[in-house]
Amino acid sequence: MFDSLFAKRLDIEAALDGETVSWERLDDGAASRVAVYRSYNKEAVNEDTPQRRELFEWIEKNLSRMRELAKAAINDS
Questions:
Q1: What is the DSSP letter of 29?
Q2: Closest to 6 measured CA to CA, from 26, 60, 61, 18
């Protein structure tokens, strides 16, 4: 599955609106990882704050988009 996604990496990266995509092949593990990361202040998101709401919006947007892209890449292969 990782190879199917990696083969479409340029399309996936372009669709993620400038996010830096981390392609992490974990050959010795049971799975590999395709991820986008974002730094944040852990103290600022412990409670309901604007920073927490912004972080959760970012997570929701990117998680939904990555699921769509993965499904499309797998169905195309």
A1: S
A2: 26
In the block, residue with structure tokens 């599955």: 1
- The tens digit of pLDDT for each residue in 25-67 reads 998 888 999 999 999 999 999 999 999 999 999 999 999 999 9
The domain of 65 spans 2-76
- 19: DSSP letter: P
Give 49's strand partners.
none
Q: Could you tell me if 65 and 16 are in contact, meaning their C-beta atoms sit under 8 angstroms apart?
A: yes
Cα separation, 52 vs 29, in Å, equals: 32
